[in-house]
Give the backbone structure.
Amino acid sequence: MGLLSHISKSSARKKETVVSKKSGTGLLARAQKSVADSYSTFQQWAKSYGFEHCGVFTLVHGMYVISHAYGIDSQTIANSVSSKDFWSGTLDSKETVFNYSKDDQDFYDFLQFFSFDIKNEICHISFVKFNQGGEQAILMIFNMDSSKKINISLSDTAKLNLSERAKNLSLSKKDTDVSKNAEFQMFTLSLSESVESSIKSVQLPERSIYNCVLECIYDEITDLMSDAFPLPDIVAFAEPASVKIVLTNKSSIDELLLQSHINLLLTDLLCKPSVFPLLTTAGKTRNFEQAIDFLN
């Protein structure tokens, strides 16, 4: 029940900050030190501030699109494509932070970005204009709690790291506290058909924007899977569109049940898809180097 219980809790998006995890050695300790110094990914930054839903609009091929996301579903990411003129017209003052609630008329100008499920639930939206690589980017945070205001300032964006993604975090063959006598069970989760199907109803203007949307969704999936399979289990994204999973000393896990729980985990992110990512087994090994090679 341990692993499957953990996945079920992750599907409910239970908030947990990285600093609350127990101290460890090797790979775990190194990861904790990295987070203490700076937030390694956008998702880690969001969790540290207790935000449940947020994303960053950046410029791609002359248009704004959500390129980094946490707690945002695939259709909202795809719907986020917008023009410079729209943002210069709606966030037109010299202020950097903009807060809206359902009581504000301007609030409804932004509902076009959201999927049907989110559109019906959202209560507050905040935007922060900030500089990213010499260009303006826009941080968006929203919630579904009418009594909970969003607390954000421009200074908070200084800790944002948009150069690293959850799906690109490096793995080490040497720095680990996993027992050399452990049994490793390997799986591949194929993403492309399910993710592309989940956004097929959204018309995207051109290929680089489409690719940005896919990359953002893949990154969110990898982050969710990493939370569901904490160390000593390991998760890594593999090009072109799959997540590799190595489970440690969990050989009794039923593959069909595991697929079912992963489906539950990804249901909201993929907007209740008709096609779920497909889990396939890649065998077992007691050779740690072989397990790591599988992830790369």
Summary: The CA atoms of residues 64 and 82 lie 5 Å apart. Residues 42-159 form a domain with the Beta-Lactamase fold (CATH 3.30.450.40). The mean pLDDT is 85. Residues 207-228 form the longest helix (22 residues).
